[in-house]
């Protein structure tokens, strides 16, 4: 009888020790992967506002980017280090100087802009999709300002920008967005992270 008690006590002690180890001696959680992205788009497309909202920054402190800025945008399964480039005429010609080292691209367009601005955005996106340093990277294309009455639909944007023929064979996502729908915006970035992870896995297999 005493032997049974001793065995039960020993098992109990092992169980308590195992629980203690699990609760108190657990190692740090695995580090989230980090990806370096470049964010481009014309002035007024809403790049800065979208990134600031994702970082939970006060919207009253948002100032349009004139040169470039870098934000670490945290998500549950990754951290995106986003280099945002200003979209003014005088700055766009220097965009390509900041492409090196990018692992993905965010292109923001104003879906409610004038025809002239939309044509300019179209040309800039075409240039980015074909640039040697970006053409193999995942693209997230955000049709922003969907909350405005003049906003064009995603289907209209896709057709006008000729994305199907131009981006065939590339990794790209076209999503509608606005500051009023953060769930949809976060879902768009989750899809981008999935593309980044897929590209990582392909690189490992090679």
Explain how this protein is built.
With 206 residues, the protein is of the alpha/beta class. Helices cover 42% and strands 20% of the residues. The protein contains 7 helices and 6 strands. The chain has helices at 2-24, 47-54, 89-92, 115-130, 154-160, 163-166, 182-205, and strands spanning 34-40, 68-75, 78-85, 104-110, 139-144, 172-176. The chain has a 6-stranded mixed beta sheet with strand order 2-3-1-4-5-6, with helices on both faces. A hairpin with a 2-residue loop joins strand 2 and strand 3. The longest helix has 24 residues, at 182-205. The radius of gyration is 23 Å and the shape is globular. The N and C termini lie far apart (63 Å). Mean pLDDT is 85; it is low at 1-23. This is ADP-ribosylation factor-like protein 15 isoform X1. It comes from Galeopterus variegatus. InterPro entries: ARL15, P-loop_NTPase, Small_GTPase_ARF/SAR.
Question: How many strands?
Answer: 6
Strand/helix succession: HEHEEHEHEHHEH
Sketch the major β-sheet.
6 strands, mixed
The computed structural class is alpha/beta
Strand content: 15-25%
Task: Give the proportion of residues in helices.
Answer: 40-55%
Can you list the strand order of the major beta sheet? 2-3-1-4-5-6
Shape: globular
**Poorly predicted parts:** 1-23
> In angstroms, what is the radius of gyration?
23 Å
Average pLDDT across residues?
85
**Count of DSSP helices?**
7
Distance between the termini: 63 Å
């Amino acid at each position: 009888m005493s032997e049974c008690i001793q065995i039960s006590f020993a098992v109990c002690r092992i169980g308590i020790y195992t629980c203690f180890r699990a609760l108190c001696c657990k190692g740090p959680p695995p580090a989230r992967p980090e990806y370096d992205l470049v964010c481009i788009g014309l002035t007024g497309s809403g790049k800065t506002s979208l990134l600031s909202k994702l970082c939970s920054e006060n919207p009253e402190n948002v100032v349009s980017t004139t040169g470039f800025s870098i934000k670490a945008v945290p998500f549950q399964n990754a951290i995106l280090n986003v280099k945002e480039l200003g979209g003014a005429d005088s700055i766009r010609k220097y965009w390509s100087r900041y492409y090196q080292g990018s692992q993905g691209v965010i292109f923001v367009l104003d879906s409610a802009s004038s025809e002239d601005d939309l044509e300019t955005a179209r040309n800039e996106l075409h240039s980015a999709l074909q640039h040697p340093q970006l053409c193999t990277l995942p693209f997230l294309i955000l049709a922003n300002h969907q909350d405005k009455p003049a906003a064009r639909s995603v289907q209209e944007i896709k057709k006008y920008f000729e994305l199907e023929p131009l981006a065939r064979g590339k990794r790209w996502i076209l999503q509608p967005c606005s500051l009023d729908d953060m769930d949809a915006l976060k879902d768009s970035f989750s899809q981008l992270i999935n593309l980044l992870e897929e590209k990582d896995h392909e690189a490992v297999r090679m």
